[in-house]
Every structure is written in C-alpha cells, then in structure tokens.
Amino acid sequence: MTASLLFFYLFAVLALVSALGMVLNTRNTVAAAMCLVVTMLALAGIYLLLDAYLIAALQVLVYAGAIVVLFVFVVMLLNLRSDAFPPSRQLASKGIVVLLGGFVLWRLVLLLPGMLPAQQPLPAGFGGYQAVALELFTRWVLPFEVASFLLLAAIVGAVVLAKRRLDSR
Amino acid sequence: MPLDVLIKTLFIVLVVVGAFAPVITWIERKQSAVMQDRVGANRADVMGVTVLGLLHPLADVIKLITKEDVVPAGANRVMHLIAPLIAAIPSIIAFAVIPYGGVYHFGDTTVNLVVADVDWGVLYLFAIGSLATYGTVLSGWASNNNWALLGSLRGSAQMISYEVTMGLSIVGVFMCFGTLKLTDMAFAQDATFRVFGFLEAFGWMHPLPAWLSWAQLPTWGIVLQPLGFVLFLTCIMAENKRPPFDIPEGESEIVAGYFMEYSGMRFGLFYMSEFIEVVVIAGIVTAIFLGGWSIPWLPSARIVAHVSATFGDGFANGVCMLLHVLTFFAKVLLMIWLQMTIRWTLPRFRYDQVMDLCWKIMLPLSLANIVVTGAVILLIQGATK
Fold it and tell me: E-strand spans in chain B?
C-alpha cells in the first residue's frame, strides 16, 4: 500500500513538473515535446497503479510512442522558432489560457470533497484486454464502429487533400 | 520474492548484454568474412594468443572508452548526451517479459523463468519498442547537422510505419493462442497437433487411419502462422534499422545518419544497442513463433514423467529446466544467425522501396492474414462443436 502511494506521488509530481515544463518552454519546441512524452509516461504509470493495464500500455504505445513522435517529426521539418508567433498574440492567448485554466481549476477544487466515492473491490480481470474488448465489441460496438468510420473519413480526406496539391504542381 | 526477481534480472541482463551482444559483434565479423571469402577478425592478441579473434570485442570496448567524447558546436548538449541512453534502455528492458524457461516445481518452491509474468506481455514489448524511436529522433536533431537530421527524419518515418504493420502481423498469433501473455504462448506451443486432424474434424475420414495420425507437428507459431512469421520478422528487422533497412544510416547518401556526430563510448552505445536489439528480436521471435523454450515433439510433462520415475521429482524438474533454457538459447542463436545471413545477403533498399514494401505490400498482406486466420478458426470451431 505504501509502495503504491509512493509511486503515485512520484508519478504525479513527474507528470505535473513535465507538463509545466512543456507549457512554459517556448524557446525549444523539441524539448517541450519531450516534456510531453514524460507527462504521458507518468500518466501511464498512474494508470498502472489503478490496475488499468491496457490503457497504460496503449498510453505509451499510441500517445508517447506514435503521436508525439509525429509531433517531433513535424517540428523538425518546420524548424519553428520562438519568433514565429508575434508577441501581441502570444500575450492575448496566454491571458485566455490563464482565465480558462483558472476557471476549470476553481470548479474542480469546489467539486473535489464530495466527488471521491468509497473504495470498491475490482471485478476479476478489470482493466485487462479481455474485459475491455468484451465491453467494446458487445455493449459499445456501435460507437466503436462510428469512431472507426470517422477515422476512415479523416484518412480519405487527408489523401484527397495531398493528392490535389500534388496534381496542381 | 524480490530476491528471485533480482536474480532472474541479473541473469538475463548478464547473458544478453554481457555475453551475447559482445560475442555477436564477433559472429557478425566472422560470418561476413566467411560469406565474402575473407579470413575476418584475427589480429587482436594477448601475448600472441588470439582465440579465433574473440579478443576483438574487448579491444573495441577499450578503444571506445579511451576515445575523445565530442559534442559538436551548436548542438543541444543535454539532448545530445541523453539520446544514446534513450536508444539503449528500451532494448535492454524488453527482455523483462520474454520467458526463457517454463514453470518448475522444487518441493514447495515454484520457479517461473521470466522476470515479469504479465498478462499484457506483447503490449509491453510494443510499447517499449515504440519508445526506442526517440533515441533515433533526438540524436539526429540534437547534433546540429543536416545529414544527421535527415537520418533521424528517415528513421522516425520508417519506425512508425513498420510499427503499424508489426502490430497487425502478429494479431493472427493472438487469435491462434488466444492470449497476449508470452508465458502462456510458450506453454501453448509445448504440444503437437495431427497434421491431417482436420479430415477427422470435418467428418471426411472418420476415424483417422493410424498412418495419417503419425504425422504430427509442434503447435509453434511458425507452423500455425507462416505468413505472420515472415511479416513479423521483416517488420521487426526494419525496426532495428540494420541492413537491408538501414536507410536512416545510409553511408553512401547521408554519411552515417542520425549518429554521425557521436564518438567514443556514446557511439558505442548506439552500436551496442543495435546488437542487443538483434538478441532481443531473436528472443521475441523465438518466444512467439519458434515455441520458446519447448523442445519439439517432446512436451515437458513427458520429460518430467520419464526422469522422475528413477531419479525423483525435484531432479526431473531440474533436468527439464536445464534442457529448456539451453533449447531457448539455442533457438535464439539460430535466429541471430538468420538475421546475420539476411544482413550480409541483401543490399540496402531505397527509401521509397522501404515505404512501398511497408504500406503497399505488407500492410494489406497482414490484414488479409487476420481475415483468413479468423475464418479458419471459425470453421474449425464449427466443425469440432
């Protein structure tokens, strides 16, 4: 129990620090992306502590291992500099972010004391791939298929856009 | 409990990183020499003793450690320092879930020869493997060198593309064994099936004549999923970025690719992690497709039954364990030999050929493999019910 608590605080602090590192680091985009990877890994660790093994593995595999790699790929191709955004816009966007974030934080803190439910024993096989797959392919099969069609539409759209640009050249 | 985990971790790290990886640098030199009709490494000696050139790995390490460690001007120092670590660590920790032996009982104690026996072992391997991309990406980006950057761009595109196909090519095996747990897969492969058993199942020949029942094959992944084996081996070799998939390094085009600005032991770390990956690939392929630690046509229950009749149960389990561990590493050596042979046989692909192979040939093939496997499994289930 104490070991898992220790790991929870370790991962929580890591996630917060790296998330701040990502947001506050505007000079070096690749370093910011690396901070995002650390945040993802720390979140995966917290999922593991919650017995959600499949989500933890997918978090690392999909988010840290594929999506952020694509971010870095694009950043390296574009080679963005800090002067890419004019300072006036930066100030405005920062102000909006602070306002929105403050609002969400305030609501969360207000909700927090009443939100925590009593601890319940987990059903057998919780968080494993069998349990998730059974739910996904029986009860939630329609939303699952709709989501996959959405992704298919996005892929087709991307191909059409890229093709048009190639043809016009 | 933590003590035996520690012992198993030390064992596997010492065997893979300490023994296999240095020795296969020697195997690679000797095998390429044989294939090219040369003598190969034989000069390094201590007092005139050369031991077949086996001292070369030692000489390499001494050379790499004593070399100057250069960080190029204009490089991002921190990223440049940690990139080799990010490249090396995933390949070392991947062996945590690969079983190099089965489960053995010595009186009250049970020995399970795997460091972490987790339900989602294959997912762990994929997750760890996907993180290895960052070593390639960061090393090229942090070097402040256009060739290195080109190398890491190529590397990240190649690794992400092949990850997709690698994941899909192995789904057929999950369907056959019904598990993602590598230890369960190894146990499922420790058996045989009758090759012509389907004649009986579909009622075409009932009962099966004895001369057809004799034909039995082990239930290995390579027997049940031959196409999956070829696809998976190709993808995982492309992930390792060794020839014929070494376009991120491509000496003739981009000097040395993503690690061209590295020297000394940090270059050595890239070099070593490539060889450790060769061992890890051999281990993964052995565990999933070549039956892991199982001896073909000789299930462990039969070994234990035979030996325990005269020598007792504990001794029988010990003999079984020894045989299984030796079998596992023999199969790993076979897979290392196969990878080396492929590496020294095929020339480097062009960049567009590598991408075409992945997206236009192997991805449709692996999807077709999943569909056909599912149909066959449904047919067999329907016939045996």
Answer: 103-106, 109-112, 192-194, 216-218
Q: Which amino acid is at B248?
A: P
* Interatomic CA distance for residues A40 and A63, integer angstroms: 7
Q: Which of B179-183, B261-265, B316-320, B369-373 has the highest mean pLDDT?
A: B369-373
In three-state secondary structure terms, B58 is helix
CB contact under 8 A, A66 and B160: yes
**CB distance A61–B127 less than 8 Å?**
yes
ipTM of the complex: 0.77
User: 3-class SS at B194?
Assistant: strand
pLDDT in tens, B179-228: 888 888 888 888 777 777 777 777 776 777 777 777 777 888 888 888 98
**CA closest to A40 among chain B residues:** B131
| B76 contact residues in A (CB cutoff 8 A) | 28, 30-31
Question: Which amino acid, one-letter code, is at A136?
Answer: L
Element (H, E) at A52: none
Supply the Cα-derived Rg of chain A in whole angstroms. Answer: 21
State yes or no: cis peptide before B244, omega within 30 of 0.
Answer: yes
Are B339 and B289 within 8 A, CB to CB? Answer: no
Rounded to 10 deg, the angle between the A29-49 and A2-24 helix axes is: 160
Tell me the CA distances in angstroms from B268 to A51, B62, B244, B275, one per residue in order.
38, 11, 21, 11
Cβ neighbours, 10 Å, residue B103: 17
Q: Where are the beta strands (DSSP E) in A13-159?
A: none
Calpha distance A34→B82 (Å, rounded)? 12
